[in-house]
Amino acid sequence: MNIFFKHLLLYQIVIHLVSFCSYLLLNSKFITEMLLFFCGFALLASAMGQGCEQGWTEFQGSGKCYKGVNVFMTWEKANYTCVAKYDAELVSIHSIEENKFIYDLIKMDNIFAAWIGVSDIGRAPLDFAWADGSKFNFTNWNIKYNEPRFGCGGMGGKYVNGEWGSIECNEIEIPFVCQRVSKCNEGWSKDQATGSCFKILSDELSWEKAREQCMSIDQGSDLASIHTDQENEFVKKLLRENYTIPGVQGFWTGGNDLNDEGSWVWTDGSPVEFADWHNGQGKPTKNKDCIAMWKSFDYEWKDWQCKMTLPSVCKIENKK
Ligand SMILES: [Ca+2]
């Protein structure tokens, strides 16, 4: 973008911001509105989400906990503060429902704008990404004002009903919203890298019965799916360190080729892309249609008869 044009746009934004703030000050509403904003946070602090620490609020649809921070900072300082002070990240938004949830949560009606985790920092201009590294699969730019134009994104207040405006990352200071993945329910182990929760069930059951048991113990729980090397190592570590049952051969996961011989899928129907088969395992074999993590293979994978009885690994997937 032409630098003069960019500065002209910035100039216009600053003028609008100044006139907007002057309006608030002249009407003696500014302090009241800031107080309302602060009160909103205070109320939130007392409203604990089930899977969230005190002062954070959960949105069931995302498995994340949110906190509005009523301190005025540049985008980069806000991002740093989420990480360093709150062990969190600037919020990423993946649906209009999540956008609306955050809008209501931080009482956006009362403020001009709040930083969200979208920026092009370290990338090509306007090639946006989320600060938490999650997929950039949803946007809510205000098209009417020809957004986006600058490198960082903020959620706008009632004048744009929570649509996003772009702002110069280090020129403007506004409040911001941090997010954390929800903590796991009692008895589950959290994989910090993904936010998913895992639990080992010791009852030795057929694959089908094991799946029923997994699904019955907690909302969103199913036999474990494993999508990456990192996740595989997390589960292996869990099995090695925390679980020893004499005589146990292995643990059921959700992987199976029950519907189509040799075509391995997880219980949600997604294909098994990452795999950790032990030598010779995972070949198309009738009657060996379920994947177990096998103790004598140091928990590498084995295709095994689904009717055999094993303990199992359950998972509540974080759908961030
Ligand atoms: Ca098979």
Order of helices and strands: HHEEHEHEEEEEEEHEHEEEE
Question: CATH homologous superfamily of the largest domain - what is it?
Answer: Mannose-Binding Protein A, subunit A
Largest sheet: 4 strands, antiparallel
At CATH level 3, the topology of the largest domain is Mannose-Binding Protein A, Chain A
What Rg, in angstroms, do the CA atoms define?
A: 24 Å
The count of strands amounts to 15
> Quick one: CATH class of the largest domain?
Alpha Beta
Features:
about 325 residues; alpha+beta; Mannose-Binding Protein A, Chain A; four-stranded antiparallel β-sheet; about 30% helix; elongated; binds calcium ion
What does this protein look like?
- The chain has 320 residues and is of the alpha+beta class.
- The protein has two domains: 3-181, Mannose-Binding Protein A, Chain A, CATH 3.10.100; 189-316, Mannose-Binding Protein A, subunit A (Mannose-Binding Protein A, Chain A).
- The chain has six helices and 15 strands.
- The chain has helices at 3-26, 30-46, 75-86, 96-105, 207-217, 229-242; strands at 57-59, 64-73, 89-90, 113-119, 129-130, 152-156, 164-167, 174-181, 189-190, 197-205, 221-223, 250-256, 290-294, 301-304, 310-316.
- The strands form four sheets. A four-stranded antiparallel beta sheet has the order 1-2-8-3. The chain has a four-stranded antiparallel beta sheet with strand order 5-4-6-7, with helices on one face. Strands 9-10-15-11 form a four-stranded antiparallel beta sheet, sandwiched between helices.
- The longest helix has 24 residues, at 3-26.
- Mean pLDDT is 85; it is low at 1-11 and 38-50.
- The chain binds calcium ion.
